[in-house]
């Protein structure tokens, strides 16, 4: 079962990298058109993904999130849900 989920996730990742273009043929707004004009030519989708995975903090975050907290996936999801609820309640003060 885990191999199936891993295979589907890998397939989706490959499709996202292949299918998504660097930018649309026509910009969706004037602001985006200006952004395209001011952007550096070496900025690309693939280079931003590579830069993201070279960021140690991001890699540690991904590893930490994907490693269950001892009791299995359900307990990990519950603890993540409690953290989100706690942070949203804390933000209301």
From TrEMBL:
<feature type="region of interest" description="Disordered">
    <location>
        <begin position="69"/>
        <end position="93"/>
    </location>
</feature>
<dbReference type="GO" id="GO:0020037">
    <property type="term" value="F:heme binding"/>
</dbReference>
<keyword id="KW-1133">Transmembrane helix</keyword>
<keyword id="KW-1003">Cell membrane</keyword>
<keyword id="KW-0813">Transport</keyword>
<dbReference type="GO" id="GO:0097037">
    <property type="term" value="P:heme export"/>
</dbReference>
<keyword id="KW-0472">Membrane</keyword>
<keyword id="KW-0812">Transmembrane</keyword>
<dbReference type="InterPro" id="IPR049680">
    <property type="entry name" value="FLVCR1-2_SLC49-like"/>
</dbReference>
<protein>
    <submittedName>
        <fullName>FLVCR choline and putative heme transporter 2</fullName>
    </submittedName>
</protein>
<dbReference type="GO" id="GO:0005886">
    <property type="term" value="C:plasma membrane"/>
</dbReference>
<dbReference type="GO" id="GO:0015232">
    <property type="term" value="F:heme transmembrane transporter activity"/>
</dbReference>
């Amino acid at each position: 079962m885990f191999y199936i989920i891993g295979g589907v996730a890998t397939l989706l990742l490959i499709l996202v990298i292949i299918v998504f273009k660097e930018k649309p043929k026509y910009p969706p707004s004037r602001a985006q058109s200006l952004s395209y004009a001011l952007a550096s030519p070496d900025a690309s989708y693939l280079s931003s993904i590579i830069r993201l995975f070279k960021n140690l903090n991001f890699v540690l975050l991904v590893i930490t999130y994907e490693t269950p907290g001892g009791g299995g996936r359900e307990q990990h999801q519950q603890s993540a849900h409690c953290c989100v609820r706690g942070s949203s309640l804390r933000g209301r003060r």
